[in-house]
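Design request, C-alpha cells follow.
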C-alpha cells in the first residue's frame, strides 16, 4: 500500500511539472517553436499531446502574436514557448504588443543550464533583463523546488488587476531533473474596488448636473468583461458613447448612443462631441496621444471623470477632477446604482446634426481600383456579429475601425498601443484556433503582409479557414499619407515597387487565392472566397492615393481636422 505522502505527491521532471501546471491553469493550447534549450519541454508536450494542443508557427514572433490573438478573443491567457537566445528574443515584439494593450500572456522560454549562465554560452541571452520593461513581471527559475509556484504566480499576475504578459525563463537542467509535484487548485483573486461611497456620490452628482455628457470608453471595458455594465450605465444616464480603437466591440455599434471612434482618425461628430461636452467619463481608457492630440485642450470645456483599474493611469496624460479606481465590472455597477435616470435628447439631437454634415454614402465609381470602404462593407455582409475581425497596422486598420460595425466583445483584434506591423497573421491564427466555430477575417496591407506572410504555411498546415484580405495599394500607405501632408510629397522609401504576386504566392503555400481588380468585382469575389470555408487569400487592388480621412494632425484638435486632400 502506498503511504499518504506517495498518494499526494508525484515525482516528475521539470518539463512534466510545466505541463501539469499548464493543465492546472486550464490551458488547452500553446503556440511555439522548438529548440535545444526546450527539448525536454517538447518531449513532455509529446506525452501530453492528448491534453495540450501545440500550434507550430513559422517564426517565434508569429507564435507570440498567435498567443495574443488567442487571449484577446477568449479572455484566457495565451501561452507561447520559445527556446533560448534568438528564439527568446524573437518574442520581444509580441510581448511588447501585449504589454501595451494589457493582454494576458505567459511566455515560457528555455535557457542554457544553470552552470552555463553568464558565460556567453551558445544561444544564451538574458531574456529577463531584455523584457523587463515590456512585461508585467518576469522570472528566471534557478531551483526546481520553485518551478511550480513560479508558474502559478505567472498566471495569477498575467490575469489579475491590469492584465499583461509575464515571462518565465527556465534553464535546461531545471526541465530535466525530477522533483516532487503536488497538484494545486487555481487561486482566485478578486479585483478590489478601492473607491469609497462618497466618491461614487460625487461622480453621480456631477453626472446629474451635466447637460452635455460623453462616455469615452477604451479597451479596459473589454478586459474587465464589463460590456453589459457599460450598456446599462449609458442607457440609464442617456449618454453618447465614443470609443478608442481598442474599445471597439465593447458597445454595440448599432445602438442609438454609439458614435464611433474618436481621436486622430475618428469621426467629425466624435471630435465635436469631445470639444463641446461639459462632462467626459473616461472608462478603461488611457488618453493616448492618438486620442488626446493636444492634451491641454482635450475636453477643455468638460469636467473629466476617469475610471480605471490602474491608479497609475489617473492624471498621467489628462487631468481629471474625479476618479474611481477598481475593476470596471464592479465600479460601473456601483456607479449605475448611485446615478439617477436622465434624458439628454437635446444634446443627442445636436450631435446628430454634426453627424449629418459628413454622413454621406461613398461613391464607388473607379473601374481601375477597388475601394477600401466597399471591401469592408462587403465583408460585413458576409460575416455574422460573432465572427472575428483581425487587422495588421496601417491605413487598412483605420479604415476597418471607421467602417466595420462591431456588435459584440472580443470580435476585434488589432495592435493598438504598439502599432505592430506584422501582427495580424499570427493573431488571426490564434483567434481561429481558439474559436473554431467562428470565421476569422484578416485585413492586412501589402506592407504588413510582407512582414508576416511566412505564417501562411501555418494557416495551411492546420487548415484554418481564415480569409486573408490584402488591401494592396503597392505602397506603405499610412506613412506615405503623412509624407503627403507633412513632408511635401517627398515619398522616401514608401513606394517600394515590389513585384510580389500575392495570388501566386498563396498558391505556392497550397492556399486558394483570388484577386479583386476593381469595384465591380468586390462582392462576387469576396463571397466566393468566404464560401470556401478554408484558408484563402484575396488580393484587392487599391489606389496608392486612397487616404484615411478625416484626420486630426498630431498635437491638434478637431478644429484642425483634415477632411479632404488636395
Amino acid at each position: 500500500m502506498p503511504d499518504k505522502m506517495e498518494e499526494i505527491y508525484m515525482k516528475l521532471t521539470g518539463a512534466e511539472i510545466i505541463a501539469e501546471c499548464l493543465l492546472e491553469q486550464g490551458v488547452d493550447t500553446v503556440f511555439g517553436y522548438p529548440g535545444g534549450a526546450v527539448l525536454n519541454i517538447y518531449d513532455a508536450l509529446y506525452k501530453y499531446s492528448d491534453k495540450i494542443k501545440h500550434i507550430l508557427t513559422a517564426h517565434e514572433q508569429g507564435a507570440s502574436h498567435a498567443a495574443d490573438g488567442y487571449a484577446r478573443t477568449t479572455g484566457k491567457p495565451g501561452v507561447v514557448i520559445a527556446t533560448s537566445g534568438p528564439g527568446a528574443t524573437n518574442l520581444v515584439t509580441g510581448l511588447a504588443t501585449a504589454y501595451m494593450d494589457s493582454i494576458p500572456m505567459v511566455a515560457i522560454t528555455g535557457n542554457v543550464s544553470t552552470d552555463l549562465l553568464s558565460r556567453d554560452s551558445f544561444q544564451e541571452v538574458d531574456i529577463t533583463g531584455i523584457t523587463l520593461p515590456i512585461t508585467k513581471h518576469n522570472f528566471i527559475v534557478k531551483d526546481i523546488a520553485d518551478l511550480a509556484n513560479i508558474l502559478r504566480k505567472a498566471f495569477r499576475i498575467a490575469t489579475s488587476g491590469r492584465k499583461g504578459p509575464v515571462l518565465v525563463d527556465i534553464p535546461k537542467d531545471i526541465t530535466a531533473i525530477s522533483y516532487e509535484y503536488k497538484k494545486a487548485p487555481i487561486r482566485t483573486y478578486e479585483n478590489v474596488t478601492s473607491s469609497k461611497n462618497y466618491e461614487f456620490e460625487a461622480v453621480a452628482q456631477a453626472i446629474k448636473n451635466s447637460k452635455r455628457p460623453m462616455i469615452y470608453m477604451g479597451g479596459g471595458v473589454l478586459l474587465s468583461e464589463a460590456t453589459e455594465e457599460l450598456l446599462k450605465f449609458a442607457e440609464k444616464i442617456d449618454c453618447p458613447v465614443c470609443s478608442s480603437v481598442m474599445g471597439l466591440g465593447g458597445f454595440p455599434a448599432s445602438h442609438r448612443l454609439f458614435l464611433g471612434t474618436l481621436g486622430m482618425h475618428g469621426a467629425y461628430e466624435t471630435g465635436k462631441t469631445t470639444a463641446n461636452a461639459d462632462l467626459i467619463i473616461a472608462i478603461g481608457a488611457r488618453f493616448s496621444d492618438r486620442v488626446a492630440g493636444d492634451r491641454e485642450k482635450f475636453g477643455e470645456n468638460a469636467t473629466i471623470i476617469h475610471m480605471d483599474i490602474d491608479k497609475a493611469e489617473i492624471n498621467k496624460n489628462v487631468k481629471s477632477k474625479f476618479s474611481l479606481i477598481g475593476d470596471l465590472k464592479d465600479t460601473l455597477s456601483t456607479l449605475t446604482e448611485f446615478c439617477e435616470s436622465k434624458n439628454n435628447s437635446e444634446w443627442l439631437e445636436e450631435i446628430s446634426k454634426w453627424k449629418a454634415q459628413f454622413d454621406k454614402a461613398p461613391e464607388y465609381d473607379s473601374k481601375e481600383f477597388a475601394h477600401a470602404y466597399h471591401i469592408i462593407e462587403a465583408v460585413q455582409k458576409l460575416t455574422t456579429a460573432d465572427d472575428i475581425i483581425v487587422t495588421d497596422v496601417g491605413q487598412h486598420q483605420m479604415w476597418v475601425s471607421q467602417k466595420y460595425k462591431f456588435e459584440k466583445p472580443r470580435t476585434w483584434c488589432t495592435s493598438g498601443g504598439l502599432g505592430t506591423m506584422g501582427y495580424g497573421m499570427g493573431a488571426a491564427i490564434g483567434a481561429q484556433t481558439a474559436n473554431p466555430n467562428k470565421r476569422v477575417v484578416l485585413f492586412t496591407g501589402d506592407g504588413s503582409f510582407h512582414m508576416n506572410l511566412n505564417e501562411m504555411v501555418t494557416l495551411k498546415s492546420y487548415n484554418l479557414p481564415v480569409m486573408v484580405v490584402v488591401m494592396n495599394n503597392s505602397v506603405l500607405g499610412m506613412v506615405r499619407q503623412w509624407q503627403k501632408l507633412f513632408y511635401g510629397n517627398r515619398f522616401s522609401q514608401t513606394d517600394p515597387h515590389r513585384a510580389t504576386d500575392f495570388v501566386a504566392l498563396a498558391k505556392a503555400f497550397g492556399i486558394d487565392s483570388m484577386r479583386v481588380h476593381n469595384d465591380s468585382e468586390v462582392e462576387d469575389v469576396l463571397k466566393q472566397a468566404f464560401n470556401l470555408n478554408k484558408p484563402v487569400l484575396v488580393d484587392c487592388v487599391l489606389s496608392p492615393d486612397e487616404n484615411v480621412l478625416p484626420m486630426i494632425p498630431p498635437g491638434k484638435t478637431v478644429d484642425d481636422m483634415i477632411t479632404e486632400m488636395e
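Comment from the thread starter after seeing the answer: thanks! Confidence is low (pLDDT under 50) at residues 1-7.
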